[in-house]
Amino acid sequence: MGCFPCFGSEEVVNFHPPEEGDVKKEERPMVAPRIKTLSSGSDRFRSRSNLGAKKEALALKDGSGVTISAQTFTFRELAAATKNFRPACFLGEGGFGRVYKGHLESTGQIVAVKQLDKDGLQGNREFLVEVLMLSLLHHPNLVNLIGYCADGDQRLLVIHVIGNFNKSMQPKARPIFNDPKNLSKLADPRLQGRYPMRGLFQAVAVAFMCIQEEAAARPLIADVVTALSFLVNKPYDPHTSSHHSEERRSQGPRDEKMERENPENGCKWDAYVLEKDDSPSQIAGILKKKEFDRDREVSEAMMWGANWREKQRATNQENFD
Ligand SMILES: Nc1ncnc2c1ncn2[C@@H]1O[C@H](COP(=O)(O)OP(=O)(O)OP(=O)(O)O)[C@@H](O)[C@H]1O
Questions:
Q1: Does 36 belong to an annotated binding site?
Q2: Which residue owns the Cα nearest ligand 1 atom 14?
Q3: CA-to-CA distance for 57 and 115, rounded, in angstroms?
Q4: Residue 196 needs a FRET pair 20 to 30 A away by CA distance; which of 90, 121, 171, 240 works?
Q5: Atom 13 (ligand 1) nearest CA
Q6: pTM as predicted
Q7: Which comes out higher in pLDDT, residue 149 or 39?
Q8: Minimal CA–CA distance to 110: which of 87, 131, 83, 128?
Q9: Cα 92 to ligand 1 centre (Å)
Q10: 102 backbone dihedrals φ, ψ, rounded to 5°
Q11: Is there an atom of ligand 1 within 6 Å of 92 CB?
Q12: What is the pLDDT of residues 13-33, one digit of tens each?
């Protein structure tokens, strides 16, 4: 059974990547029961007179020795950093809660402080998942987690502030999203047209959901990871990539039904069925369907994180050898 890490200011705990068969209903939930063991910044504050003088870390260590860390902050530190969450420091509001710009006295860093809305839709569990996800996943397109505060009933995330956080993204994204041809031009140039068109479209659908005007309608980070891992785990078939589909398109029309039903080409992602089958609402449906089992999705997302790191390690090792 994959063990969910305890959070302790000094301790390093083992995070065993779940193994096949680990994600069983009866063994869930993995997240909620341990949230109470989050190291609270206030413990640190009480035990130390020099506020913020020493960095403490939430440390997670996986089975193969990779340690990831995040600092803990007291609520007092973050209140001071944001001038008591003054409206002038307000950056925006998301599904999680309000986001403020702050100045950390201890390091002089300018940060974004996300305060969990206690009356909001997201709770302790989502907070913990967000801490974990942002600690585990590092990518230029993902915000960088500096630390968190779990002080009393306060839950806050401290992340790197992004200067040009573009609030007008959605209107700009809409025309691109509605035009699959334009969309494919935006795909990673390194892929050189070798991507499944439908997968690409759905990935953008997920991105589009994340920038919806109404904060409460945006998916949780665990949902995003789940949806993307679902897409990423679809087998890549070069015969159904957009590149090849373009070639085939130029060779004349094909029987779409046959494409769909041919078990050999596994054409779930075939460009021929793009226009008919793909829609943002389809992905939205996956994320919002009533029987959506959040515990399972979170477990799967964690497993995906572990697998991803394993792949990274293998690649690094290959490059080293
Ligand atoms: N790192 C940051 N730097 C600058 N502004 C930010 C940052 N993070 C969030 N914001 C501002 O806060 C708003 C809400 O962002 P947030 O990430 O909380 O929303 P979200 O996509 O609904 O995600 P979540 O569900 O995690 O809240 C953004 O539109 C932006 O204006």
A1: no
A2: 94
A3: 20
A4: 171
A5: 92
A6: 0.57
A7: 149
A8: 83
A9: 6
A10: -140, 160
A11: yes
A12: 233 333 333 333 332 222 322
